[in-house]
Amino acid sequence: MLTPARRWVSDERLYAILDRVVAHPADGRGSGDTKDRQTLQMAEIAARETLSPVERLEIALHPSVGFVIMPLFAFANAGLPLSSVDLGNSITWAVFFGFALGKPIGVVTFSWLAVRSGIATRPPDLGWRMLAGGGLLAGIGFTMALFIANLAFSKSLIDSAKIGIFLASVVSAVAGLALLMWLPARGRPPRTARR
Predict the structure, then answer these.
(1) Helix, strand, or coil here: 134?
(2) Residue 166 and residue 186: Cα distance in Å, rounded?
């Protein structure tokens, strides 16, 4: 709360500093303490200070918060007792297949119908395989799925539904990311040997 939210260098001041930046001399001189080097260092500091300290802090904390802390927080608050994992329950598998297969099939099918009927147009860079990868990622459901499961299932079945949601989210994330990472690698031209 005490981190300053105002930036210390305005856009006008940054542009004034950048106007003074001169390209590094090409005459082969060393990188001593020249006026050009001092101007470049001042431009580097000014460019960094155009973001407020709170913005820099937010950028620095985002990876750990977004990819570690928030998922752990969501998982801890899901109330999933791992001691009572029952994979034989039909509710678990119904929820799992609804998310892991139903959602991707629904996304691709209704996208195809929308394009085919003329309601929507598919961008030229978006292939059907990439859309299928996005559909797989749509199978990731956590907070809203848990909320609806709490409303839909009785106390005796809620843990089975939570396990299905969790398993479907993991499988959907892995499958979707694998497909989306495989597609660009598959479309690249083969590397030629360097001489």
Answers:
(1) helix
(2) 30
pTM of the complete model beyond 0.70: no
Q: Is 103 helix (H, G, I), strand (E, B) or coil?
A: helix
Strand locations in the chain (E): none
CA distance 122 to 34: 55
pLDDT digits (tens, 9 = 90+) for 13-25: 777 777 766 554 5
Say whether pLDDT at 108 is over 90.
yes
Average pLDDT on 134-157 reads 87
Token reading at 178: 């694998």
Over residues 47-66, the pLDDT tens digits come to: 777 778 888 888 889 999 88
Length of the chain, in residues: 195
Nearest one of 104, 102, 89 to 161, comparing CA atoms: 89
For tokens 């299928």, the residue is 132
| Residues contacting residue 127 through CB under 8 Å, at least 6 positions apart | 183
